[in-house]
Amino acid sequence: MISMTYSARALYGAYRLALFDKSGFSNFDTSVAGFWSSFTAAFLIAPLFFTVLAGRYFSEQMDVPLSQHMASEISAYVLSWLLFPVLMEQLTKPMGCRDKYIKFIIAYNWAMVPQYTVFIGIVALGLIGIIPPELAGSMSVMMLIWTFFYAGFIVKSALEISIKTASSIVFMDFLLGLTIDRMITG
After folding, report:
1. Can you give the three-state secondary structure of 71-134, one letter per residue?
2. What are the pLDDT digits (tens) for 58-84?
């Protein structure tokens, strides 16, 4: 189990990166232990994520039982957190940046916390009616655009690759997430 101080420092690093400040990388433990600890980010986000999914389930009155819906969503969530790092481990070898892989995954994982938190906040505010659905939709699109730039900055900076290659990786991650979601949750 990692400490609150450790998590706070990593989240501060993610925040600095969200401001497109490379100094954020200095807040991460880039050891092998730090690599495995970065997956804590998935556990930090999970309660918010699954609460919103349950809210969406009830607001959309889905035809499948809640337990089946949540099992599918949990499977997709776990698979998306695991498959991208495995794929990137294989891709960084031929790209010649395998030595930067651990630093990249650590930053990328921790960067998911602010991304998911803001996005989930927008969805939640739309679901409970604090903001109109149209505004929530527009804000979600703006958030998605910002996420592409944020993730691209992390990929480019951590792996020290071109913008074109970094953009391709971000787009690949986006498509991977959509594919996993469609295959598992329908």
Report:
1. HHHHHHHHHHHHHHHHHHHHHHHHHCCHHHHHHHHHHHHHHHHHHHHHHHHHHHHHHCCCCCHH
2. 777 778 888 888 888 889 899 999 999
Q: Which two tokens stand for residue 126?
A: 């739309």
Q: What is the pLDDT of residue 48?
A: 85
- Where along the chain do its domains lie? 4-185
* Residue labelled with tokens 């691209």: 152
Question: What are the CA-CA distances from residue 15 to residues 41, 74, 90, 110, 130 (Å)?
Answer: 13, 26, 28, 9, 26
CB-neighbour burial class of residue 32 (10 A; exposed 0-12, middle 13-18, buried 19+): exposed
Nearest alpha carbon to residue 14 among 2, 1, 24, 23: 24
User: Given phi > 0 = left and psi -120 to 50 = alpha, else beta, which region is 64?
Assistant: beta
* The two three-digit tokens of residue 134, written as one number: 């149209």
Q: What region, left, alpha or beta, does residue 29 occupy, with left being phi > 0 and alpha being psi -120 to 50 degrees?
A: beta
Which tokens belong to 36?
């495995």
pTM tops 0.85, yes or no: yes
Q: How far apart are CA 51 and CA 120, in angstroms?
A: 9
